[in-house]
């Protein structure tokens, strides 16, 4: 489960980095949601992946009580 959350964070970061390298420091992976002329949300897909990955990781961390993440000697 940790690997999926980490993959979302790393994948989103790499996606943003690739966009910035090849598109003159601009990011183009935006979704524009709405109905007709009403626009309800414009957001970056990579940022959504990063945010979801962090939230998922925190959920796993809270659910497990932090066990298994840091091993103490």
Distance between the termini: 24 Å
Q: Which stretches are poorly predicted, pLDDT < 50 over at least 5 residues? A: none
> Beta-sheet strand percentage?
15-25%
Strand segment tally: 2
Please tell me how large the radius of gyration is.
Answer: 16 Å
Average predicted confidence as pLDDT: 85
Number of helices: 2
- What does the overall shape look like? flat
Q: Give the topology string: H per helix, E per strand.
A: HEEH
Helix content: 55-70%
How would you describe what is shown here?
With 73 residues, this protein is of the alpha+beta class. The chain contains two helices and two strands, in the order αββα. It has a two-stranded antiparallel ribbon with strand order 1-2. A hairpin with a 2-residue loop joins strand 1 (30-35) and strand 2. Helix 1 runs antiparallel to helix 2.
What topology does this entry show?
Layout: H1 2-22, E1 30-35, E2 38-44, H2 45-64
Antiparallel strand pairs: 1-2
Helix pairs in contact: 1-2
List the defining traits of the structure above.
about 70 residues, alpha+beta, two-stranded antiparallel sheet, about 55% helix, about 20% strand, flat
In short:
This protein has 73 residues and is α+β, with helices and mostly antiparallel strands. It contains two helices and two strands; from the N terminus they run αββα.
């Amino acid at each position: 489960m940790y690997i999926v959350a980490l993959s979302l964070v790393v994948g989103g970061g790499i996606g943003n980095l690739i966009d910035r390298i090849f598109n003159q420091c601009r990011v183009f992976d935006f979704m524009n949601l709405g109905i007709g002329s009403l626009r309800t949300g414009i957001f970056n897909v990579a940022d959504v992946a990063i945010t979801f990955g962090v939230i998922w990781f925190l959920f796993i961390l809270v659910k497990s009580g932090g066990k298994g993440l840091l091993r103490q000697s």
